Amino acid sequence: MNKELVIELKKPYLFEDEEYKTIDLSGLEELTMQDAIEAQKNVVGAGEDTVVIYAPEASQAFIDEIAALAAKQPVEFFNGMSIGLSGKIRTAVQSVFSADGDKSKNRTVEFDKPYTYGGETVSVMDLSGVEELTSKDVSAAENEVLKTGVYSANMKNFFVYSCALAARATGKPIEFFTKMPLKDAAKVRSTVNAASFFRVIGGAKDLRKLAIAASSATHTGIDFFMQMPVMELLDTCKDIQEMQEQWRKAMH
What we know:
By secondary structure, the chain is α+β, with helices and mostly antiparallel strands. It has helices at residues 33-46, 51-54, 60-71, 76-79, 83-94, 135-147, 159-170, 174-178, 182-192, 203-218, 222-226, 230-251, and strands spanning 6-15, 18-24, 108-117, 120-126. The chain has a two-stranded antiparallel ribbon with strand order 1-2.
């Protein structure tokens, strides 16, 4: 048991006529990415907190859902806490999601302990394949989010979206990532979404618009651009835009 995840209370917390002297969140170590996916889905589906769409870990409703799963308590157990105690809960839960993807070496994630899935045990995960993903891959990842019954223009903040991208980048089934311990899966998510690595603002819809524009400007089939790695597509569109600007200046 991680003692840092057991919160000692200065005075007992009363819930349904029972007093609690500690709040045990050590169950956070047993949660998986699927638990985070379900928690996010529950909050979005209930319409309780739109913050969860844009910054899940900043959403109090999401924090309460995760804490409830970890402590094996109803979410109401956390809803009625004082601001001070709630802040301690928030700090403990957010520590699980604190991985910085920009700090991963060579886009390789090191797990806290070996992870076994389908008879395969891994300690590190190479995510460099994300650089080769195409607009079609991004669209497929967004479809995985839609399967959960929710939608947002900002898909990259959905946990299942990151799992889908990681799956397509590594050739592993999406369940390999959704069943991963939450802390390690958070590292994968952070690396996939790292600003210096792979960040698509606007998602597949805007990528398709870029592909259409590039196709029109170069008289090339749209599939040529849709099958191009996203980072290469973005660079190509930038080059096309610069060439068009130069052409306009030359004509005046």
